[in-house]
């Protein structure tokens, strides 16, 4: 019996046509999937009850681990266990080295992007992200009981076109239909229902494990514009743990350098104490290290004085973001808290003091982004009667063209609501010019070198005319997911360059197709592995049954028959140790054949026993 | 004629209604569709229609239109968990047969 959910009045679906959709928070450290069921948005848990999946993928010899297991193996197999690959999406090697320094991975430089060498070959960050999405997708189908219509996936507000493309490609490889990509702070605001609230300015303060983001949004006619973003990509709750460890070691007068194992133990303790100090004023602890035991207590006040400087750093970013947004602090209507570290009382207190507003904290800050995405997904597949109210997003950065002198001419300014198409006319620079190079750029700066190059293409076949006479119309088109295409047309002849503009950091369609194919061929391997496992189970079951039969009625066998059966059992046992289903199958068949006469004799024997001593009338 | 809820179902419906912030109760119904002829309807109710019958269990109102009630008389609605999946399940004494998926049925 299928299990049903409650629909809005008049929105009941027909059998097998349920409009199932999910929101996915594809995070740097953890990823979540959420859905709206019977009107209630909830994060979906896995079989173990875990609501968040570590964004970690480990490549083993012939399988792939995703999530908790992979994360736990990161220390023992760092080169093949990829964590936080979101940082590498749409980035070149130069960027990665500059931003993140020493990483344990074997990067392979590609044009404008990187691959990572693992024991299963080179992996692109997009493929790695696809593994994470695939796991969440599978889990969602198991929970919701049917195939999904699609998913809304969140991305950081500062993600550029290449990074958004990368995210969308990853979803495609994982077999997920992307209903829309939305900005993480926008999702958090939707979770609190701010999209249907008063128009005005909203700040989203997102303090996660390792990163801090502040976004200033403006809600205007149902659309969230990103006014500014800021933050620190190397500041988060992990720094709070570190601050506690430093304090504990100082108080215990430990000056010697701790072993890696002890240090790890101390960081785990630091995290525990931090979480405990959210509720308690004082916490006692007792930890035994190789170097000796540390016993003591820590108060919230001590902890707070250690992290105060860190929290102040986030407030400086807030001040800058508010200034960049061109708004006054008093204009901010609501402050939304995102990320587990916003549970720390001092953080709440300082944020409240800075914005002079009580921040919104009623939704679990680890889940709020996924919940907002789920609500948006539910709306997009049409589960709400008033679904004409479609929330739109805006372009995060301006898009433009290179003009003479290395200048950037903006065609679509940032914060334009999407989908959008804008055209601008350009002309030739030289007499008789028959070609024009079009260089598409993204960014707010004026010079080409300071903006990000997205694509280049050439319009050929311009009629040779005096400079400044030909009119070339360039159209920028951004679809609902924030993805861009550019067309150039010479107006007098109508010649159009129908070149597909691909961001230079993205993947070619053929590469995506290859990856999808690769995931299919993996499916075959997965199935083979499953068949093998089933055959092994069959083999063991058969051996047990025959051994039991020999125990019960071995007297029915001649010595040489018993020996033959035992040999066949042994052969089957040996075959199960091999990873070859055909070998096991043959061995099962051999044992079955050789034990047939024995089975027949057992049958006759039991019939005989049943009949012995009974008169024919009683049978 | 009667329709009933299990305590588990009543609890969940109450939670969903509270979360939704409005609504009189839960509508149970049948419509003619699906591979076996009839399918169950489960919706929130904002206003009563003419001919609606209202049943109550643990303060949760269950609303059924007169036509559906013929097919649903004696039905009990339960909320069950099946592995990761969870949702509402109809136990309908009038039901003769259902399609493999259990989403549509015949009388």
TrEMBL record, chain A:
Single GO MF annotation: unfolded protein binding
Keyword ATP-binding carried by entry: yes
Biological process terms in GO annotation: iron-sulfur cluster assembly
Name of this chain's protein: Chaperone protein HscA homolog
Record organism: Psychrosphaera haliotis
Coiled coil start-end: none
Function: Chaperone involved in the maturation of iron-sulfur cluster-containing proteins. Has a low intrinsic ATPase activity which is markedly stimulated by HscB.
Gene3D superfamilies: 1.20.1270.10, 3.30.420.40, Actin, Chain A, domain 4 (3.90.640.10), Substrate Binding Domain Of DNAk, Chain A, domain 1 (2.60.34.10)
Pfam family, one: HSP70
Lineage, uppermost ranks: Bacteria, Pseudomonadati, Pseudomonadota, Gammaproteobacteria, Alteromonadales
Listed InterPro entries: ATPase_NBD, Heat_shock_70_CS, HSP70_C_sf, HSP70_peptide-bd_sf, Hsp_70_fam, ISC_FeS_clus_asmbl_HscA
Superkingdom of this protein's organism: Bacteria
Similarity-based family: Belongs to the heat shock protein 70 family.
Keywords of this entry: ATP-binding, Chaperone, Nucleotide-binding
TrEMBL record, chain B:
Cofactor: Fe cation
GO terms of biological process kind: iron-sulfur cluster assembly
GO cellular component entries: cytosol
Superkingdom of the organism of origin: Bacteria
GO molecular function: 2 iron, 2 sulfur cluster binding; metal ion binding
Keyword Metal-binding found: yes
Chain ranges of the Core domain: 1-103
Pfam family, any one: Fe-S_biosyn
Keywords: Iron, Metal-binding
Family to which this protein belongs: Belongs to the HesB/IscA family.
The protein's name in its UniProt record: Iron-binding protein IscA
Protein source organism: Psychrosphaera haliotis
